Amino acid sequence: xxxxxxxxxxxxxxxxxxxxxxxxxxxxxxxxxxxxxxxxxxxxxxxxxxxxxxxxxxxxxxxxxxxxxxxxxxxxxxxxxxxxxxxxxxxxxxxxxxxxxxxxxxxxxxxxxxxxxxxxxxxxxxxxxxxxxxxxxxxxxxxxxxxxxxxxxxxxxxxxxxxxxxxxxxxxxxxxxxxxxxxxxxxxxxxxxxxxxxxxxxxxxxxxxxxxxxxxxxxxxxxxxxxxxxxxxxxxxxxxxxxxxxxxxxxxxxxxxxxxxxxxxxxxxxxxxxxxxxxxxxxxxxxxxxxxxxxxxxxxxxxxxxxxxxxxxxxxxxxxxxxxxxxxxxxxxxxxx
Amino acid sequence: xxxxxxxxxxxxxxxxxxxxxxxxxxxxxxxxxxxxxxxxxxxxxxxxxxxxxxxxxxxxxxxxxxxxxxxxxxxxxxxxxxxxxxxxxxxxxxxxxxxxxxxxxxxxxxxxxxxxxxxxxxxxxxxxxxxxxxxxxxxxxxxxxxxxxxxxxxxxxxxxxxxxxxxxxxxxxxxxxxxxxxxxxxxxxxxxxxxxxxxxxxxxxxxxxxxxxxxxxxxxxxxxxxxxxxxxxxxxxxxxxxxxxxx
Lengths: 337, 247
Prior knowledge:
The complex is a heterodimer.
Chain A: H1 24-38, H2 44-70, H3 78-96, H4 100-124, H5 127-147, H6 149-152, E1 158-159, E2 165-166, E3 169-170, H7 174-197, H8 199-209, H9 211-216, H10 221-247, E4 249-250, H11 257-270, H12 277-291, H13 299-313, H14 317-330
Antiparallel strand pairs in A: 1-4, 2-3
Helix pairs in contact in A: 1-7, 2-7, 2-8, 2-10, 2-11, 2-12, 3-4, 3-5, 3-10, 4-10, 8-10, 11-12, 11-14
Chain B: E1 3-14, E2 17-28, E3 32-36, H1 43-50, E4 58-63, E5 66-67, H2 73-78, E6 81-83, H3 96-105, H4 111-116, H5 124-133, H6 149-161, E7 167-171, H7 179-196, E8 199-203, H8 207-213, E9 216-221, E10 224-229, H9 231-236, H10 238-245
C-alpha cells in the first residue's frame, strides 16, 4: 500500500504552547475548578452547601453517563450505589474510626465490585430488560438500608458523620469542605476525561453504537460491559463518600429508586455521552429548583416543564443544544464527539 | 497450498427451517473464494456460524487446522479473522479516522496500556495510510454517519483491514455501491491480496464483481452446496443457471 498524504486537522489547543494532550474539555474543567473554588464568596452557608451538593451529584451523574451515555447500558441503580458508598463511608468513619480517605477508597472498591457483579446480567439482557434488573437491585438496596436497623440505623439513619481533614487542616466549615469537594470532583472528572479520550472510551462508544460490529473488530464486549458498569458504579460510590460528610446525616430516602430516575434525568438533560453533560444535568437537577423557589409550590411544575421543553427541542440534552449553537455560530458542521 | 479455513458439514437450523444444511469447503492461503446464491440460501447465516455470531447446530470450523467452532467473534478477530457485514456497520458518531483506529486498537498492547498509553493507540499513521488507500482523505474528520452509502461501504471495508488480518470474510461488499466506487473497491481488494497474501471469502450478488475477482466460486441453494469451481465452470453449470443465474 502506498502511503497517503495526511489530512489531520490541527486541534485548536496546538496553537497555544500547551502539552499535546491538553484539549478544550480539560481547559474547561480547570477553569471551572478555579471559578468554583472562589464561587461561594458571599453566598453564605446554604448557597455553599447547594454548590457542593451540585458537584457531589455531578460525580454520581458522571458515573451514570459512562454506563449509559457512553456504553449505552441502561441502569436504574445509580442512587443505590451512591447509598452503598455513603453508608460505607459513614460507618467506616463514624463507627470503625477509619479516616475518610481510606473510607473513600473502600467505598469505591465495594461499589466497583458490586457493579461488576450487577454487570453480568448486562451480558445477557439489554435495554429495558436490563433496566428492570437494575430496578430490582435498587429496590433491594433501599430495603436493606431501611430494614437492617442494626447496621444502617433504619429510617433514623446515621448521624454525626465526621468531615475529613487535609494534612491536619480541619475541613469542618462549609467553605473549606466545599473547596475539598471541588478538588476531589476535579480529580475524578480528569480521570474520566482521560479514560473517555483513551482507546477505552472509543471501545465504550462502540459498545453503545454497535456491539456486534465491535466484537467483530476484536473488542472484548464482555470485558468492556463489565468495566462500564463497575466504573460507573464506583463513581456513584465516590459520590456517596462525599455526600455523607457533606450532609453529616444520612437516611435511606436520598438513595431510593426515584432518586435513580432523577440521576437518569440529569444524564439525559445534560447530554448523554458528553463529558461535561453531567455537570450541566446536575446543575438543572440541583440548582435550578433552588432558583425556582420564588415560584413557591409551583416550582416542580415549572421545573418539569423546562425539562420537557428541553428534551423536545433537543433530545441530545443541553450539551447537544450548546454544540448545535456553537456549530451555527462558527459555521462548522457538528464534529464527532 | 496451506488451508486457512476448513468448514465441515456445517448445519444451522432455526426451528424447523434449515438455513445451512451440511456445507463443507476449504479455503487456501491467498485465495479469493466467492460464495453466491439466491436470497435466503444461507450465505450470511453461514458467515455468522463461521464467525461465532451464531452457534451452528452441527459441524465444525477450523482455522489453520485449529478447531474454532463457537469461538467468540472478538477472539476470532484476535486470531486474524476479520469481516464486513451485509448491512452498513460503521460507528456513525465517530469520525472516519476514529472508526479506523477503533478497528485496530484492540490488537495493540494490553488493556492497561490502552488506558494509560496514547489516545490513538499508535495507529494514526496506519489509519492515515488506510484513509488514503481507500480514497477517503477528504473525509477523515467527518462523522461516519454523514458519509454517503458508498463511502460508508469503503470505510467498512477499510476497517476490516486495519488489523492486518490474514482471512477476511466480506458480506456483499458491492451492494449499493456505484460503478466507480466498485472499481476502486475491487482494485484495492486485489492489491491487498497480491501485496499481503490476505485470503478472502466474498459473498456477493454482483456477478461481474465476483467472477472477475474470485479464483473459485461456491454456489449455495437452499442451504446446500449446489456447485463449486472456477468462475467459468460455474457460469456454464446447468444446475446453477437453472437455480440462480437464469438464462
